[in-house]
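Q: Can I see a sequence and its folded structure?
A: Here is a first one.
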Amino acid sequence: MSGHSKWSTIKRKKGEKDGARAKVFTKISREIIVAVREGGGDPSSNSKLAQLVQKAKSNNIPNDNIDRLIKKASGDGEKTNYEECVYEGYGPNGVAVIVECLTDNRNRTAGEVRHYFDKFGGNLGTSGCVSFMFSTKGIVVLDNEDEDIDEDKAMEDILEAGGDDFTFEDGCVEITTDPNTVTEVGKALEDKGYKVLSAEPAKIPSTYTTLTDEDHIKKMGLLLDALDDNDDVQNVWHNWEEADN
């Protein structure tokens, strides 16, 4: 579902795909089920659930659907047991890739992820082979599609809300913060009148890999699309940076 911090580019790519909303709902539903089972069904005391409720709302999932899902996960209605698993590997030309999954069948998921890497010019590695290249940060993204956010006022509000740094991207404002307080920072900015598109921890690479070979670029795109289309895959983090035209 995610790339590195170039959030607006990733969001546009997802929005272009048919059925993207249904797939997003399927993925978020799994995360909510696991979060409720681990920390209870009250977002005010379960920060992970609060992040996911914000994520669901930012993806235009109706409140009724979210409430029903939480109630189902809190009771006996949801019997499927999902387990978390993380795969690490390399895409074309050594692009570092981390794949986070929630699955009810680890063998199936491992086989599918390995197939994608093999098919599109990469290779699946061992645990820890690329994760050392990433650090976890909180990322809050504000909608600025109309470019009506004043930078000076935003800086004041972001610092007051607890944000560490921010950049104006194409159509949004991206804020970095402590991953443990990202939900609170997002809520504080929402209370100040900003439209929060996302507020969740993200894995940010320390270095980036630029692809120039057209075949490598095509295969990397196909690898990310295949992973994104798999219901078991929750997040994909990578250090591919597209070359400036």
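Q: Show me another, different protein.
A: A second, unrelated one:
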Amino acid sequence: MALLEIKPKSECRWDLVALGEVMLRLDPGDCRISTTREFRVWEGGGEYNVARALRRCFGLDTTVVTAFADNPVGRLLQDLLCQGGVDQSHVVWVPYDGIGRKVRNGLNFTERGYGIRPALGCSDRGNTAASQLKAGDIPWQVIFEAEGARWLHTGGIFAALSETTAEVATEAMRAAKANGTIVSYDLNFRGSLWNVAGGPERAREVNTELVRLADVVTGNEEDYPVALGCAVAQVDEDFTQLDPKAYESMLFEVLSKFPNLELAGVTLRRATTASRNDWGAMVCAQGSSWAAPVRNDLEIFDRVGGGDGFASGLFYGLLNGDDPQRAVELGAAHGALAMTTPGDTSMATRGEVESQLRERGARIVR
């Protein structure tokens, strides 16, 4: 059952184009941000993480549209992107003024959390190169017409960076739609990005307008009510185990509110502790739904990037022509694996994802 009319690979250079900011993540390991004396560095960004996983795990051709300040931190990010294999031909390099008064690169300090101590993120991303992108800066006709793209992915984090980034997202999504490219939007609500930019009310305005330009929307169970104003999913007060069916009506409400959407997906998480979560996912089309088996008591090493792992696995299945049930199971399995390694990005292989679908468990592979 094909849910989406996706252009064939023979007509397109890119399987997926990601539009978003890529930050340098500083990870204190098993210490705290406020007390550590050393950090390990990774690259990460909601939209980019999807493109990287599709390239490294699933072998597809992807490119990222973003911007960096041209200084050693920007070049470190470039080096990290090279390892990820995502094409950088559409990265905008902005001259650096010497101290970051006019432009800089974003930093993201992230604790993984452990046991009763939850994960903690502290962003330092004001005045970044990506946040200053404006409509007209990116040659969308080159990307979608000359080169060709099967899928565009962007989301609520990029749209929240500034007034101009929401305009860039609008421009990109319209150009993609005009050229028959599938458009996905990850709600990815971050209250910290909206605190001084109009709060939840403004977030709903921006997200609502952008979701009207999408074919596919994804998010976690908390994103939908706050980002789109839909009803909170009704679950029992003594709710002790994930039930994807409890969220079905929420997704159907979104599909009804946005008739342009072909598919809505949600990741579901019940955090017993920072180290043990129940994890599941569901996607809905008009009148139909498909849920991945819930993984109860999943051991978590680093929860950041689980939702992006789901999105990339789901998109891979759809780009590959798989039926919706297999696609959502690919997404949930890949998201689960992405949370077993450090950093924002997936380190899983396609073979490991397939193994999870076959329920081979965690016995040693040798």
